[in-house]
UniProtKB/TrEMBL annotation:
Record carries keyword Transmembrane: yes
One Pfam family from the record: SpoVAC_SpoVAEB
Transmembrane spans: 31-48, 93-112
Keyword line: Membrane, Transmembrane, Transmembrane helix
The keyword DNA damage is annotated on this UniProt entry: no
Organism name: Laedolimicola intestinihominis
Top-level lineage group: Bacteria
InterPro entries: Spore_V_AE, SpoVA
Name of the featured protein: Stage V sporulation protein AE
Length: 118
């Protein structure tokens, strides 16, 4: 049942974003920034954590989940290191996910041999 719930919640988030992309003139980059900032703000307010516990991977994998991870990292680093935690907390919290994306993206490029569009 966890898989179905994650699929439905993640799909709902993606469907809402697709509607936003089609009904507004916002560029995809701005929408992605909006999603990350929304996740960070909802994490700061305390809403995203219960939502993520309910939705599982459906809430932790999309971009709002990344914003929430950044927020948690900054909060922990500020609690531990003070003002400098603002700058290093997000990097420390998201380093594993970003590194995995880079490594797996590189491995996929070796396997599938991508080409430039003409």
């Amino acid at each position: 049942m966890d898989y179905v719930k994650a699929f439905l919640i993640g799909g709902l988030i993606c469907a809402l974003i697709q509607i936003l992309m089609e009904k507004t003139k916002m560029m995809p980059g701005r929408i992605m920034v909006l999603l990350v900032c929304t996740g960070a703000v909802l994490g700061a307010v305390g809403i995203y954590e219960p939502f993520q516990k309910f939705a599982g991977a459906g809430a932790s994998v999309p971009l709002p989940g990344f914003g929430n991870v950044l927020w948690k990292g900054v909060k922990e680093a500020v609690d531990a290191d003070g003002f400098l935690g603002i700058f290093k907390g997000g990097f420390k919290a998201s380093a594993v996910g970003i590194s995995a994306a880079l490594v797996f993206g590189y491995l996929a490029s070796l396997i599938f041999q991508p080409k430039m569009k003409k």
